[in-house]
Write a structure and sequence with these properties.
It is a single chain. With 312 residues, this protein is an alpha+beta fold. It folds into 2 domains: 142 residues, Alpha-D-Glucose-1,6-Bisphosphate, Chain A, domain 4, CATH 3.30.530.20; 143 residues, Rieske [2Fe-2S] iron-sulphur domain (Rieske Iron-sulfur Protein), CATH 2.102.10. It contains 6 helices and 17 strands. The strands form 4 sheets. The chain has a 7-stranded antiparallel sheet with strand order 1-7-6-5-4-3-2, with helices on one face.
């Protein structure tokens, strides 16, 4: 499928009384490659920009751009069309098949940065209302590009090669480790989050396998420090250690079993991808092909009792 709008790469193809209400220009601290990647990425809209988009679902996409539904009943939609040769794109909004906005954005690479120029046009706006309507769009796009710029910079940082970490890290004694959590560590080529969740010591990949966004525990309600006692925390250490589950009393064992039975999930704030920490499976979206890679094991040093992450 292609764009529904005929002559989509022409200005004002529906011959409306379009009024230019504002122009927004900015130097984005991200490469033009990252910016184009961001433009084509409709999927981040309801997650990264959740305060600006109340509903977004995909209708269709292709090299030409994409079209998303903007209402649950599919009575309104947004269509973004890309003019690669001219290094620009246009986003048009429609309500009940009637066009309500036309926004053109031009991109120009400036080294590792990108200059953007955005013009906002709305049909049938009175002269007396132009300034107020224009300011609404300027405020909106300033917020959207702030959020996009932060994401693009973080993604570029993750794409930039970093020195490999060690095969294992000594995290120190358990009771000294707990106040330092959560913490991020690097083992070989990957970063991991170490945290205590509902009494269990957990390790999971720090970055989403989709586009390298930051992962965090989905439900903050399970971060319950009231049950962070040694017996439960020790149950999450490798069974090969002296602090294995066999040493728990029956009460602690029951609590540990309940915790281990939970489906603990992490989510990326960029696109809303959700993963099961233990299995690595992607739970949402259902058709995603990616999954978490296996985390290094937690063990204890038999002599010192220190917690070791990785394989010595």
């Amino acid at each position: 499928m292609t764009a529904l709008q005929k002559n989509s790469l022409q200005k004002n193809p529906n011959d409306l009384n379009l009024v230019e209400v504002a122009c927004y220009q900015r130097l984005i601290n991200a490469s033009v490659e990252r910016v184009w990647e961001n433009v084509r990425d409709w999927e981040h809209l309801p997650w990264l920009h959740e305060s600006s988009f109340s509903y977004v679902s995909l209708d269709t996409q292709g090299e030409w751009g994409w079209r998303t539904w903007a209402s649950e009943k599919h009575t309104s939609h947004v269509e973004l069309c890309i003019d690669t040769q001219a290094q620009r794109y246009v986003a048009r909004s429609y309500r009940k098949q009637q066009q309500v906005t036309e926004i053109w954005t031009s991109l120009r690479a400036e080294g590792a940065q990108t200059h953007i120029s955005v013009t906002f046009a709305v049909p049938d706006i009175a002269d007396a209302d132009k300034t107020a309507v224009g300011q609404l769009y300027l405020d909106l796009y300033s917020r959207l590009w702030d959020e996009d710029e932060e994401m693009m910079q973080a993604r570029q940082q993750q794409l930039t090669p970093a020195p490999a970490g060690p095969d294992s890290i000594n995290l120190g004694p358990l009771q000294e480790l707990l106040p330092r959590l959560p913490m991020e560590v690097r083992i070989r080529q990957h970063n991991y989050q170490v945290c205590a969740v509902a009494g269990e010591l957990l390790v999971y990949p720090a970055r989403c396998p989709h586009l390298l966004g930051p992962l965090s525990i989905l439900d903050d309600s399970i971060l319950d420090d009231s049950i962070l006692d040694d017996s439960i925390l020790n149950s999450s250490i490798s069974d090969s250690s002296p602090l294995a589950k066999s040493q728990l009393d029956s009460s602690a064992q029951g609590r540990a079993d309940k915790i281990h039975a939970q489906t603990l999930q992490v989510r990326c704030p960029w696109h809303g991808y959700v993963f099961d920490i233990r299995s690595g499976a992607c739970l949402s979206p259902a058709n995603a092909a990616c999954r978490l890679h296996r985390s290094p094991p937690l063990q204890t040093n038999g002599a010192s009792g220190d917690v070791i992450l990785g394989v010595a």
